[in-house]
């Protein structure tokens, strides 16, 4: 077998073929120079001078044509024919030059060795056999006309043996080189595949990875880093204008690597990131490897575990409190109904009644954290459902509380637990009405239902014309037990967001232009299963 020299990647085979062409052309030129200066008669015991000189010219001209035409042989037969012709011509020159004393037999051995680099196995040994037979037969033929040539049998046999030895040796070396080359190619392919796999893993990691040089230029940034930082392509750019907080943490780490860097928030509504830094020494260059981990989910899970533990703890306490609390509330109610109770005492009884209700509300909210049931989403027509909700709310609301409904587009459907949606919307509407009434005689809330153009998802906005949320408090309003009122528990918005997330919806706060607040519920697609 032989390698396909015409293959695009087999440059080594083509180099060997060019070496073979150069070797034959060099022999042809040397023979022409020798016969042009009549050195052939002086150096060689030529038997047939005309045959030798004509054969030398034909050998050179033929090799020139072969070197020009045969650059990329496509078949084994072409290489075999080339080697066979070369052996035949050298054998003819061997005969014309007088046999083994001419030294052309040595050239024949070299030609067989080079041919066996390109022709392996039985084909290469066949060329060696042809050369050995030609040497022995031509020596025998010379001995018939020149008895002195009978002494050349040993040399001719040795040259024939060298043809076989050279063929076998070259084939063994070539086979080993081919195995090494194949192994190297396989290792190179494995390394390339590993590099590609590592690149894919690096790009798909949720952890953001950056490599910075001493000028804070981004040498590498995976997809996770660009998403967490909320930026586009960062490779090749200076990180300072894109994330000054990250650069500040980097400077702190360079000043004292033993301290844990503070967390940061690269985007206003983005996740909380925990950076970590590692020095990289690449030759004479000092680089910094930056890891960005999103700790928002970890903090949220820790908070949920904390609240679950708190819920289980307070559930037992709440049951023990509700019994005496109910007795206090009932006693206060009986006092209020007494005819002998004067006005100031009536006021005190009312205070007891109000604070009992407030304590009962706190207990109910805390209990709700520990016994919240699993969501049971149903396919809802949001337009129909909202009209019914607004109608029921208006029927029970005071006259100084108004709710307005506006819907856009065609049918808007989603999958959500209707009871939990009622709880969320009731809480948001009551909050909006309460804050609106603080600045106006009539508290108003607007419900606006539409389809988002970018995500194609149903969106419900709950808007009010109250004072709004101060910017410094916006990031805390969904935290449990965080409240801006003395009478609030700080659990309403937290529970509302948790209920939305349990139904694969999202609850966000957006400041309303011109004042007021806007809570936006982005519902899940109706075909999205819970």
UniProtKB/TrEMBL annotation:
Q: For this UniProt entry, which segments traverse the membrane? A: 21-39, 51-70, 79-97, 103-119, 126-144, 150-170
| Alphabetical UniProt keywords | Membrane, Phosphoprotein, Transmembrane, Transmembrane helix
The record's EC number reads 2.7.13.3
Q: Which InterPro entries match?
A: HATPase_C_sf, HATPase_dom, His_kinase_dom, HisK_dim/P_dom, HisK_dim/P_sf, PAS, PAS-like_dom_sf, Sig_transdc_His_kin-like_C
Domain (Histidine kinase): give its ranges: 316-527
Its top-level enzyme class, in one word, is: transferase
* Reactions catalysed: ATP + protein L-histidine = ADP + protein N-phospho-L-histidine
For this UniProt entry, the molecular function terms from Gene Ontology, in alphabetical order, are: phosphorelay sensor kinase activity
Q: Which PANTHER family match?
A: SENSOR HISTIDINE KINASE, SENSOR PROTEIN KINASE PILS
Q: What is this protein called?
A: histidine kinase
Q: Report the source organism.
A: Ectopseudomonas toyotomiensis
- UniProt lineage: Bacteria, Pseudomonadati, Pseudomonadota, Gammaproteobacteria, Pseudomonadales
